[in-house]
Design brief:
Blueprint lengths: L3 E4 L6 H13 L4 E4 L13 H4 L9 E4 L2 E3 L2 H11 L8 H16 L2 H6 L15 H21 L13 H15 L6 H10 L3 H12 L5 H5 L1
Parallel strand pairs: 1-2
Antiparallel strand pairs: 1-3, 3-4
Bound molecules: glutathione.
InterPro entries: Glutathione-S-Trfase_C_sf (IPR036282), Glutathione_S-Trfase (IPR040079), Glutathione_S-Trfase_N (IPR004045), Thioredoxin-like_sf (IPR036249)
GO molecular function, one term: glutathione transferase activity
Pfam family, one: GST_N_2
Length: 220
């Protein structure tokens, strides 16, 4: 039986998009099942429909036979064990890629709180508070530093092939687009690369077609 990746609403669930891209890029065979988030228990990790498939109360969750892996980075690492090109091959580049993915996984709280993921939404550019502006500046610096050092061979952070680090920053690129965040030329070009991979375009198409809404997220 092929692994099943449970994801949240494609429009809103940035954590779901990350390992879904990784699995799509890996070429591994997997099935995707979508659970609408929102309503009773949501944001407290107590939604009955999510708890039924993920003991942490969160999606994404990957079912591999009877095993459940319920964290975006752990799912991505599981894929990379089978498809090592999901990380760069040189050890120091790989360490930088892991560090970039982990910085996203454990940080950028202001960006995540104030510019929530909403793939199909477009707002007028807004003033960013100091903390969000600091997150945006840090992300631009990180992207440009990695692209200049490792990206000469292609459009991704580490060159021609997308890695887990690129997957982890794709939802960030959607937030910059949604809220009209102005980027420098290099970062804008990289952001556009993330938003035009065939896998992201497939996800986006489904996000646009979804009828479930989370009104709080559409009004922020
Ligand atoms: N650290 C987890 C975070 C997962 C997460 O927060 N998922 C959200 C959806 S994007 C969720 O399931 N929320 C349900 C809830 O909070 O009730 C990961 O990386 O997978």
């Amino acid at each position: 039986m092929k692994p099943i990746l449970y994801v949240g609403n494609r429009n809103y669930s940035s954590w779901s998009l990350r390992p879904w891209l990784v699995l799509a890029w890996s070429g591994l065979d997997f099935e995707t099942r979508t659970l609408p988030l929102g309503g009773a228990g949501y944001s407290h990790r107590q939604m009955p429909s999510v708890l039924a498939i993920s003991p942490s109360g969160t999606v994404p969750a990957l079912h591999i036979g009877d095993d459940v892996i319920s964290d975006s980075l752990a799912i991505s690492e599981w894929a990379a064990e089978q498809v090592p090109s999901l990380w760069p091959s040189a050890p120091i580049a790989r360490a930088h890629a892991r560090s970039a993915a982990c910085e996203m996984h454990s940080g950028f709280v202001a960006l995540r709180t104030h510019l929530t993921c909403n793939i199909r939404r477009r707002t007028a550019p807004r003033a960013l508070n100091e903390e969000v502006a600091r997150d945006v500046a840090r992300i631009e610096t990180l992207w440009n530093t990695l692209r200049r050092r490792y990206g000469a061979g292609g459009p991704f952070l580490f060159g021609a092939t997308p890695t887990i680090a690129d997957a982890f920053y794709t939802p960030v690129a959607t937030r910059f687009r949604t809220y009209g965040v102005k980027l420098g030329e290099e970062a804008a070009q990289y952001s556009e690369t993330l938003l035009t991979t065939p896998a992201f375009l497939e996800w986006e198409k489904e996000a646009i077609a979804e009828s479930w809404t989370i009104p709080e997220s559409d009004e922020k």
